């Protein structure tokens, strides 16, 4: 029944650089904050794997900063993101014009281009919207919201404001059932399970799942979500007017490809689907981090949400024992392949926790900070003894 995981790690290499577990610590996951739960297997499990502790990243951040306080120097935005956003939006609208007004006779050229180029740009929009969501694209919150709306020009549905709202909740309540909007719905877990054909179809309609999961939260649209709807309806009308309906269709097809079965969308599976026991967040270290602005460095991002995309590799470089010791992916293509073809992976391959357990464990943060300090003091004494 076991699944060969596509992940790798270098835990043995770095084990002596990590502080030792203290039996008196209030969280037995210290220092890597790996759990002792077993991943869910859709061949025999109907639901998510469950944990009785809080999400690990706040405590991981404290543990890492205690040893590597220099990481705080990496905090801040990267204004280049704004210029990339403008260029990406302009490029996609230009291609919409070409297919709507110039290249109007081609069908297969339309489809291939929409997948290879349009889908790739749309996947990049997701990264840009993500950066704007965390205020990494500009110096103020308002300017970041404008960047997010600009990225939404090339996406014909209003995504930015809703993504911002629900993604920030995902960070706060990672894995909390009923509160983390990134978790699969009941019908996804029951219907898809480990069936390869159904998983393929499920990934194909993944753009729709973003809308359905958000709607399932049953929340009244926020002011900025209403602004986003008005803004996107306006840009869609303008695209239809100047690029034609076929140009607008190009944007829809690009969205479907770019958020579905596309290499640039594999990070949706890579980030939190549990390929290994005890680990609920994964990074991807591969060549596609270059065009996709390090979106694969998800462990680093969850640990340090104040660090912009361009400085996430520096987080790993400063604290390799905390990142290379974790399981990570090296191929997005392999992520999709393994997830689809292996019957032991499915929508329920996620970790859940109750809000009561999350809150109870989170109350120990202050005491854990003091316990971590003791662990590092012991580590320093051991190092001094060895040098003597």
Report on the architecture of this protein.
The chain crosses the membrane at residues 82-100, 107-129, 141-161, 196-217, 237-259. Residues 9-26 have a biased composition (Basic and acidic residues). InterPro entries: FA_desaturase_dom, Sphingolipid_d4-desaturase_N. Keywords: Membrane, Transmembrane, Transmembrane helix. It is a single chain. The protein is an all-alpha fold. The chain has helices spanning 11-14, 57-67, 80-102, 108-133, 141-151, 160-172, 186-191, 196-204, 206-216, 223-258, 267-270, 298-303, 312-318, 320-323, 332-341, 355-362, 365-387; strands at residues 49-51, 283-284, 328-329, 351-353. The strands form two sheets. It has a two-stranded parallel ribbon. Helix 3 runs antiparallel to helix 4 (108-133), helix 3 packs parallel to helix 5 and helix 4 packs across helix 6 (160-172). The relative contact order is 0.21.
Q: Which spans of ≥5 residues are poorly predicted at pLDDT below 50?
A: none
Query: How does the overall form come out from the CA principal axes?
Result: globular
Mean pLDDT: 93
Number of strands: 4
List the secondary-structure elements in sequence, H or E. HEHHHHHHHHHHEHHHEHEHH
**What kind of sheet is the major sheet?**
2 strands, parallel
Helix vs. strand class = mainly alpha
Q: Tell me the fraction of residues in β-strands, as a range.
A: under 5%
Helical coverage, percent range:
40-55%
The strand order across the widest sheet is: 1-4
